[in-house]
């Protein structure tokens, strides 16, 4: 009976899994939530091959747990019964891990990287949880995580010969000598890969930074939201003249909810200052200033991501119901009305000769989430309406749709229903003003995705061109060294040894060029970031 391993999120592959499957792996076992290949043919054939040749096995399941921090040495000692007090940096120690009853948890090697950093190998999830459990119970200052190390095992009687051919000093002396003798060729060879890696890092980093910048800019608002406000009609309709203005009413909110099921939240708003009238005078003791004042519902916090400092809160339903005189102030208002270090929560400010209790301080949202300023003050909608005698009239509202709703469709549906409600001509495009965050965000996402894709294509193409260049130059190098290679063959050098040296030379140059390209590309992005931050600081 053939058994099949069903993949799940708890079952991890390794960086080598795809290549292992191409080699025809027939079965796996599972260790530490990871795939461990077990057979490729029959046990007899694999045993014979192992005894006569070389086998390479994916043993990435042999994870390493890194423990660092000032209490790392104490923790490692608590995990094992072996005395590690005399351990040397860079040395490995066999160290059985035992529980409180002396039972064996694992028997890994523990090696000391420095006085505050250790690694445990072979380690599984039991070891990770064991270490974290002790550290948590003892309240130790340590950082415990699974190191990103994936291991290959090279086994068999010829394994040492293979490793020598790759790592022995003579091979690398010859490689370095060849590189140093042909400096011009070496430079030309590395430039192709360096330039490809550099271009890719620069483009991909810039595109990713652009995408992150857009995400930050929109972090203060629901991605599928819009604002709508009343303007003047531009077309006469059903006896009404051009240029007519009309207010929104609270009943319009229920009207939209009933007719547009795609709406998740609606938040009507009132304001004094900003785009509507003069900002009121706000007084606190001997300090006073003018601030923009907003009247909002609690739903505003669900559309616009409002962050309140610890100890405070935003407007709630009880504030609306009882028309409470409470206020949420911005960071700038706190600085200008209160002394440094003074907690404004629970204190009173005077707005238009009316006392308001401060219940929260709002963190200012940069980007599109911060339509106002850091000094705005928010009070309950009902309190604002009563104080300014607005009744049920308001001038603008924020609307957010469910995630599955197309932003453009939501905007068109809302406006079409408002035209019917307010008796506005269907072709009148000026009666209502809108700002569609969802459509704007979609456009930006498409743009940034296109940039990332373009950077990937250009980077891969450039790297591919560099690799081809390296291949051509190495081919030339082989032809140039025909006499040398012939002499080496005549002296007994095996073809495999010669091939390995040529391949290692190409791989070495590629890796060096790639590393330099990554470093230079990263430095360029770092420099751009620092200049951008400097500009922000200078502007502020």
Detailed description of the structure:
With 540 residues, the protein is α+β, with helices and mostly antiparallel strands. It folds into 3 domains: 63-150, Aminomethyltransferase beta-barrel domains (Alpha-Beta Plaits); 168-214 and 443-539, no CATH class; 227-436, no CATH class. It is built from 16 helices and 25 strands. It starts with 16 loop residues before the first helix and ends with a helix. 26% of the residues are buried. The model has no long low-confidence stretch (mean pLDDT 82).
Topology, number of strands: 25
Coarse structural class: alpha+beta
How many domains comprise the coordinates? Answer: 3
**In what range is the share of β-strand residues?**
15-25%
Largest sheet: 12 strands, mixed
Overall mean pLDDT stands at 82
Q: In whole angstroms, how far apart are the ends?
A: 71 Å
The number of helices is 16
How large, in whole angstroms, is the Cα Rg? 35 Å
- Overall shape: elongated
**Spans with pLDDT under 50 lasting ≥5 residues?**
none
Helix content: 40-55%
Short description:
The protein is of the alpha+beta class and 540 residues long. The chain contains 16 helices and 25 strands.
Keyphrases for this structure?
22% strand; Alpha-Beta Plaits; 540 residues; alpha+beta; 3 domains; twelve-stranded mixed beta sheet; 45% helix; five-stranded antiparallel beta sheet
């Amino acid at each position: 009976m053939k058994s099949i391993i069903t993949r799940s999120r708890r079952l991890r592959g390794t960086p080598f899994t795809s290549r292992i499957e191409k080699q025809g792996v027939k079965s796996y076992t599972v260790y530490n939530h990871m795939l461990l290949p077990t057979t490729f043919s029959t046990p007899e054939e694999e045993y014979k091959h192992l005894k006569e040749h070389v086998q390479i096995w994916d043993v990435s399941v042999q994870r390493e747990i890194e423990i660092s921090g000032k209490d790392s040495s104490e923790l490692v000692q608590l995990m094992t019964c072996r005395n590690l007090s005399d351990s040397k940096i860079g040395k490995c120690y066999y160290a059985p891990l035992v529980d409180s009853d002396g039972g064996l948890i694992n028997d890994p090697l523990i090696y000391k990287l420095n006085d505050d950093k250790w690694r445990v190998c072979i380690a599984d999830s039991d070891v990770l949880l064991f270490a974290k459990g002790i550290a948590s119970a003892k309240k130790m200052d340590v950082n415990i995580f699974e190191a990103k190390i994936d291991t290959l095992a090279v086994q068999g009687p010829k394994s040492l010969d293979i490793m020598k051919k790759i790592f022995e000093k003579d091979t690398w002396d010859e490689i370095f000598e060849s590189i140093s003798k042909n400096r011009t060729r070496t430079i030309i060879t590395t430039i192709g890969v360096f330039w490809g890696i550099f271009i890719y890092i620069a483009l991909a980093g810039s595109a990713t930074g652009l995408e992150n910048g857009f995400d930050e800019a929109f972090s203060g608002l629901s991605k599928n939201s819009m604002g709508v406000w009343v303007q003047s009609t531009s077309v006469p309709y059903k006896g009404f003249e051009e240029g007519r203005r009309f207010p929104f009413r609270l009943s319009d909110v229920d009207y939209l909810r009933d007719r547009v099921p795609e709406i998740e939240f609606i938040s009507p708003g009132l304001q004094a200052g900003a785009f509507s009238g003069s900002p009121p005078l706000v007084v606190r003791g001997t300090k006073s200033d003018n601030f923009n004042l907003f009247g909002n519902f609690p739903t505003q916090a669900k559309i616009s991501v409002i962050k309140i400092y610890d100890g405070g809160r935003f407007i709630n339903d009880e504030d609306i119901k009882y028309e409470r005189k409470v206020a949420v102030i911005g960071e700038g208002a706190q600085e200008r009305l209160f002394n440094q270090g003074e907690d404004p929560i629970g204190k009173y400010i005077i707005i238009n000769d009316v006392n308001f209790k401060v219940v929260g301080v709002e963190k200012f949202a940069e980007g599109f989430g911060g339509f106002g300023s850091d000094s705005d003050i928010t009070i309950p909608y009902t309190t604002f309406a009563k104080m300014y005698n607005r009744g049920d009239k308001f001038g603008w509202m924020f609307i957010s749709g469910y995630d599955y709703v197309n932003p453009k469709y939501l905007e068109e549906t809302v406006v079409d229903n408002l035209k019917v409600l307010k008796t506005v001509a269907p072709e009148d495009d000026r009666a209502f003003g809108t700002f569609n965050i969802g459509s704007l965000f979609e456009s930006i996402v498409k743009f940034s995705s296109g940039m990332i894709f373009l950077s990937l294509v250009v980077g891969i193409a450039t790297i591919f061109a560099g690799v081809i260049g390296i291949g051509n130059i190495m081919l030339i190098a082989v032809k140039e060294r025909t006499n040398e290679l012939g002499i080496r063959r005549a002296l007994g050098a095996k073809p495999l040894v010669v091939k390995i040296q040529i391949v290692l030379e190409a791989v070495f140059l590629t890796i060096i060029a790639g590393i330099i390209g990554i470093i230079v590309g990263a430095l360029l992005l770092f420099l751009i970031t620092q200049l951008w931050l400097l500009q922000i600081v200078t502007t502020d």
